[in-house]
Amino acid sequence: MSRPDARLPEGVLAVWKPAGWTSHDVVAKARRLTGQRRIGHTGTLDPAVTGVLPICLGRATRMAEYLQEMPKAYEATLQFGVATDTEDLTGRVLEERDASSLTEAKMTEAVLAFQGEIWQVPPMVSAVKVDGKRLYEWARQGVTVDRKPRRATIHRIEVLDVKAGVPRPEIRFSVRCSKGTYIRTLCADIGRSLGFPAAMAELVRTESAGLKQADCLTLDELAAAIEEGRLQERLLPADRLLAHIPSAAAGQPEAVHALQGKALAARRLAPAASAPGLWRLYREDGAFLGLFRSDGERLKPVKVFHPNEETDRE
């Protein structure tokens, strides 16, 4: 495997996505600013949504699938009294009803009832594939297709603010959830549980891949950091963000064997990687060697990372 070009930035960059930009727009802008063509994000945000958008540069793109699997957090505003074909306020109105009879207590109780494991029908504006096409492609053709419910987990949900006593009451809440949770659908389902139409009025992603707003740069701040030569200090090693995956260190000759893509004896690592599943593997000097999967006795390579030239120097 060839070594990475040391002149190009590598790692994970937390960007605060502005409203009106697609996730692809942000990646394209970051590509132009950094000069790194090997770049991608770890989870699409709709154009109207703002928030944390982790961007992987260089070899960090190989870790994007694992960063995407991590829980995400949002702050959402739900509006009762209206339903749309997109389940948010940008869509075509399907139903309107006066919801002023809803009390703060009823709305709060309904929101909190959705904590735990839930089932959702993916919205027609999502990227789920049905019969070879993504749902949003079907929707653009004016076609609504049958979708199978999918399981999601709401790890935590908390009510932040409530506006009651008006025809279109609102409730703002924070939620920490599993990958693949549709917040717009959560809003519609909460309304349905109370017998009223409802739609998502606003959404902000507050956490993704363990990164929060305090970790983020705006696009203007990113441009300034690059101009001032400070980009490197804002890049995070992808492997360090995967702290939920256990790690082990390899001495000689296991470290050499790891870089050759060979299987390793679990007992010869520190600690012994005897628990089945993914492990992050490091050299004794701290250099990241890659992700390996243990069956309890042996580790087989999943993604091998050759240390860069500076780290590899004796």
- Judged by helices, strands and strand pairing, the structural class is alpha+beta
CATH class label of the largest domain: Alpha Beta
Q: What is the approximate shape?
A: globular
Number of helices: 9
Please describe the biggest sheet, giving its number of strands, its sense, and whether it closes into a barrel: 9 strands, mixed
What is the CATH H-level superfamily of the largest domain? Answer: Pseudouridine synthase
| Annotated CATH architecture of the largest domain | 2-Layer Sandwich
> Helical percent range?
10-25%
Terminal CA distance:
20 Å
**Count of strand segments:** 18
Describe this structure in words.
With 314 residues, the protein is of the alpha+beta class. It folds into 3 domains: 11-70 and 210-239, Pseudouridine synthase (2-Layer Sandwich), CATH 3.30.2350.10; 72-204, Pseudouridine synthase; 245-312, PUA domain (Archaeosine Trna-guanine Transglycosylase, Chain: A, domain 4, Roll), CATH 2.30.130.10. Helix content is 21%, strand content 33%. It contains 9 helices and 18 strands. The strands form 4 sheets. Strands 1, 2, 3, 4, 7, 10, 11, 12 and 13 form a 9-stranded mixed β-sheet that branches. A 5-stranded mixed β-sheet has the order 14-16-17-18-15. A two-stranded antiparallel ribbon has the order 5-6. Helix 1 packs parallel to helix 6. The longest helix is centred in the N-terminal third of the chain and has 12 residues, at 23-34. The chain is globular, with a radius of gyration of 23 Å.
